[in-house]
# Entry
Amino acid sequence: MKLATLKDGTRDGKLVVVSRDLTRFTDASFLVPTLQAALDD
# Structure
């Protein structure tokens, strides 16, 4: 599992979780809106 940012027009982008083989991702913004917010907390 990896964390990544998906471009969405905002400064920090949207937080997504990426599969280990990098073939799939899912939105994780319902937990924390951005990767920066996750790192800050």
Summary: Residues 3 and 28 are 9 Å apart (CA to CA).
